[in-house]
Amino acid sequence: MNVASRASQLLSSQSIGDLLNSDEAFLFDCDGVIWKGDTLINGVPQTFDMLRSKGKKLVFVTNNSTKSRRQYANKFQSLGISVTEDEIFSSSFAAAMFLKVKNFPKDKKVYVIGGEGILEELELVGYTGLGGQEDGKKTAQWKTNCLFEHDKMVGAVVVGLDPYVNYYKLQIT
């Protein structure tokens, strides 16, 4: 039975058993699935305990780039759930891994329009990140020819959620 047809069935004792017996890993989104804000959703710890007791691999995914895997592991811990960084796959981690897999040169810098999560993940794989919230209060200063001076060592721009996006940051792209 394929995933699409399984998803369309209502959960029953039989279908839950089939699901548990057929899959080795379970992926969970974080925001709104495991927690809402800083509140754990009822039943989550028991579900994780049951899946782990059956030898299932758990992976926690999020497209929220504001935090690093370390910061997410700390959030899980604060909610009473033990999760390792290796079990977390965030968009900030994905961006850093993309650059690494593509052999982006380590001597080049990465400009970040986003939060600390991206900067931390870049640093963990050996890249120098610039920007982030630090540039949130800067203003664009164009020369008379409408050009601006920028760091010539910036070879990539990574964009994530950034409540402090501004023209200064956008001119880098």
From TrEMBL:
<dbReference type="GO" id="GO:0016791">
    <property type="term" value="F:phosphatase activity"/>
</dbReference>
<dbReference type="InterPro" id="IPR006357">
    <property type="entry name" value="HAD-SF_hydro_IIA"/>
</dbReference>
<protein>
    <recommendedName>
        <fullName>Phosphoglycolate phosphatase</fullName>
    </recommendedName>
</protein>
<dbReference type="Pfam" id="PF13344">
    <property type="entry name" value="Hydrolase_6"/>
</dbReference>
<dbReference type="GO" id="GO:0005737">
    <property type="term" value="C:cytoplasm"/>
</dbReference>
